[in-house]
Amino acid sequence: MKNKGLHAYRFGNNPEERRFAAEWERQNRECLTLEYLLGDDNSRAEPTDRERQVAATVVQWLGSPVGQCFLRDLGYTKNGVKL
Fold first, then answer.
1. pTM for this one?
2. Beta bridge partners of 81
3. Rounded Cα distance, 45 and 35, in Å
């Protein structure tokens, strides 16, 4: 995993974190999402290892119970049900 967060050890106990992390990895492998987010309007930027780690950690956190509460408080739903 090229875009690995700081807490990947939690994947075994939290499949939702693993799901978020796996999708982030796929997005960055297939769509270069982080390169586009960090670039300007006309070009992509090559993220540093630290930038990849920080972004992956935040995305994984969104799948954690606390991250899910954050999304729920913003009104997001999962499969039509409020988180």
1. 0.88
2. 78
3. 5
Burial of 33 per CB tally in 10 Å (0-12, 13-18, 19+): middle
Confidence of residue 83 (pLDDT cuts 50, 70, 90): low
Domain-wise residue ranges, the chain: 8-82
Q: Which residue has the tokens 């995993």?
A: 1
Helices 65-73 and 49-62 pack at an angle, to 10 degrees, of 70
CA–CA separation, 69 and 58 (whole Å): 14
Could you tell me which residues come within 8 angstroms of residue 57 by beta carbon, excluding any fewer than 6 positions away? Answer: 5, 6, 7
Percent helix, strand, coil in the chain, to 5, is 60, 5, 35
Sign of CA pseudo-dihedral 8, 50, 35, 1:
negative
Top-confidence residue, 12 or 78 = 12
Q: Can you read off the two tokens belonging to residue 12?
A: 């075994």
